[in-house]
Structures are given as structure tokens and as C-alpha cells.
Design goal:
single chain; mainly beta; Methylamine Dehydrogenase, Chain H; four-stranded antiparallel beta sheet; 30 strands; 0% helix
């Protein structure tokens, strides 16, 4: 059999100032979108505020197309939800507001054309667009800290069903959706004496929206569906070479470790590219115990072909993520061999291309 080569190349995108909150591809229009949190000052510099900024970019030449600033956030730098999603059904961008509702944005003008899930008693932590089933699922918390998963119609914005996700004390909430089956995965990170743990749930909305706990693992950084498996990258520090991508079978509810990198371990970020490749962050970190600091030793992303446990390619990332490797996230294209890597506490963003010589 002839040798099969997999290549990866990256392009640094010169983003405007501001920390990256989220990004999304819109392959049908040859674009991608980036949401950032930008430091701003009121007149006289008396009060420091932050505002959201959305920019659109051309995939063809990696250039800025348009940019827009959104509302100020006087509460601080961290927005609870920074996700940006695309609905090709609506030809619209869906993104979080400052926390309490979703905004529907025109992909060309970046103007807000509508809102969704507007409820005063909630803070949105994350959401997922289920384009094939024309739904949006919103993961939020109420004032009593109860966790709520709510489904809305993508066509008219109407509220459809609500499920209460078990858990009160938590540090982070994340959601992923299987675009084929409509199944939902949720992680609820909870604090503990020996470090944070995550309860992982799977949910279905037929005939009613219901969630069931599947497993408890180390704290979750990112999760995504790949076929019937929910793939998870944990927050375990990047000096653990035994850490792998956790794969939870949504049918049997069993957990396994299918994608590993024996020389580095896999941490913090995971994505599925073009329904063919699994990508994970395989950088290495080092703890400086004497001053309680972490530092980056190397930064890289490894790629596996579907259902093949052996690393097929490694992309060396030139970015020094420093003590914030745990803030690295991936956004993968569903239809093209492309993925975006960014750090949530900086304006560093790389766009990677995968070339397969098989």
C-alpha cells in the first residue's frame, strides 16, 4: 500500500485588539467570524468597561471583511458566553448577548436583525444551534443557580421545552450537539477538595427534553460530537502524558480513551474537522512549584484520522501560550479541512489547513 501523508499548515490571522471569546466557520459564504471582548474606557477614563466586537473574515485571502462593536459590559472582562454559531437555514449568525439572550445577526452587514431566548431571570452560559432540526438549545442558570436547558424554534424563536440539569454548585457549563441525531451533550464542572470534576450528561428532546448523567471525569475544557461518540478534552494540566481524549458512547454510555499522544498527552481542546479528522491540543506545560507559576514548554496540535488511534500529523504552533495553555480552544469546519485555534485571553488566532495525500 502506498504511503498516506497528512500535512498541516497554519496562517496567523492579525486580529484587532481584544480577547477572543469565540469563532465560527460559514463555509457556504467562504467566511469565518470572531467574537472578542475589547477593553474600552468612558470619557475621562474614570470607569473601565468592556464591549463585544464581532468581525467577519474571508477564507479565500484571510482578510478582514467587516467589524462591529456591541454593548458595553460594565460587570467585567468575562462574558459568560462567547459562542458564535452559524445557521445556514436562516443565513444568519447566532451569538450570545452580554448574557441574558441571543442575538441574530446578518452575516454580511453584521447588523442585529432579531433576538431569541430573551428572559430576565437567566444568564446564558452556552448554546448550540441544531440546524437540521431547526432548533436552538440554550444552557443557562437562574438566579437560584439551578441549571436549565431550553429548546427554541430556530424559525420563529418560540420556546418549546425545558429540562432542569442536576447540579447547583458549578464553575463552568458547556454544551455540544450531534447534528445528525439531535442528541445533546452537557458538561457541568463542579469544585471539589481534590480539584474540579465534571458531570457529563446526555439529553434528548423526543418526545420530551430530558437529561441523564452518564459519567464523572476530570474537569472539561471542550466537548464535541463525532458520530455517536461525545469527545472530551479535559483541563488536566499539560504535563500528564497519559491524558487522552475521552470518548463517551452515546448508545452504551461507556467511556473510553481512543485518541492519545503518548509523548505529550492531549489536553484542553478538541475538534472534529470535515467529519474525517479529530484534532487535539498536544502542547506540554511545566509547573514552577517554587513560585506557583505554569509555563508553556511546547505548543502543538495533533490530528488523527477517523477511528484510527495513531497520530497522523502534528502541527507545531508557534504561539507561546505561556501560563494560559488551558485557555486554548479549537473551532473545526464541518465541511472543509480547516480548523481555528485561539487563546481566550489574547487576540492570537491561527487558521490551519489539512492536506491529505492518501
Amino acid at each position: 500500500m502506498a504511503a498516506q501523508s497528512l500535512g498541516v499548515s497554519g496562517t496567523r490571522i492579525p486580529l484587532p485588539a481584544g480577547n477572543v471569546l469565540g469563532a465560527s466557520f460559514y463555509e457556504g459564504r467562504g467566511m469565518f467570524f470572531v467574537q472578542q471582548s475589547v477593553l474600552s474606557t468612558e470619557s475621562g477614563g474614570i470607569a473601565i468597561h468592556f464591549h463585544r466586537q464581532l468581525s467577519s473574515w474571508s477564507l479565500a485571502n484571510r482578510s478582514l471583511v467587516a467589524m462591529r462593536s456591541f454593548d458595553d459590559n460594565s460587570k467585567g472582562a468575562a462574558f459568560p458566553c462567547g459562542r458564535v454559531e452559524v445557521s445556514s437555514t436562516l443565513d444568519r449568525i447566532v451569538m450570545c448577548s452580554a448574557g441574558s439572550y441571543l442575538e441574530i445577526v446578518d452575516p454580511i452587514t453584521l447588523k442585529t436583525v432579531g433576538t431569541m431566548a430573551r428572559t430576565d431571570d437567566q444568564i446564558i452560559s452556552d448554546f448550540a444551534v441544531d440546524d437540521p432540526h431547526k432548533k436552538v438549545f440554550v444552557l443557562s442558570t437562574q438566579r437560584n443557580n439551578s441549571i436549565r436547558l431550553t429548546s427554541y424554534s430556530l424559525l420563529n424563536g418560540g420556546k418549546q421545552d425545558v429540562a432542569i440539569v442536576p447540579g447547583v454548585e458549578f464553575t463552568d457549563l458547556s454544551i455540544a450537539i450531534n447534528q445528525k441525531t439531535g442528541q445533546i451533550g452537557i458538561s457541568v464542572d463542579t469544585p471539589g477538595r481534590s480539584g474540579n470534576k465534571a458531570n457529563v450528561f446526555t439529553c434528548r428532546d423526543v418526545p420530551n427534553l430530558m437529561c441523564a448523567r452518564v459519567v464523572q471525569i476530570n474537569s472539561v475544557s471542550q466537548l464535541v460530537f463525532f458520530g455517536s461518540h461525545l469527545l472530551i478534552a479535559t483541563s488536566s494540566f499539560a504535563d500528564d502524558k497519559k491524558d487522552c481524549i475521552v470518548a463517551i458512547d452515546s448508545v452504551s454510555k461507556s467511556a473510553s480513551r481512543e485518541y492519545c499522544s503518548p509523548s505529550t498527552g492531549v489536553h484542553y481542546a478538541v475538534g472534529v474537522v470535515d467529519a474525517k479528522y479529530v484534532v487535539g491540543f498536544t502542547g506540554i506545560g511545566k509547573r514552577k512549584w517554587f513560585n506557583e507559576e505554569n509555563e508553556s514548554v511546547t505548543s502543538s496540535f495533533s490530528i488523527w484520522r477517523a477511528e484510527n488511534p495513531h497520530v497522523a500529523a502534528v502541527a507545531k504552533d508557534p504561539t507561546d501560550y505561556g501560563a494560559f495553555q488551558n485557555e486554548v480552544r479549537l473551532v473545526a469546519s464541518a465541511t472543509e479541512p480547516l480548523f481555528i485555534a485561539f487563546q481566550r485571553v489574547s487576540n492570537v488566532l491561527y487558521l490551519y489547513d489539512i492536506t491529505d495525500g492518501k
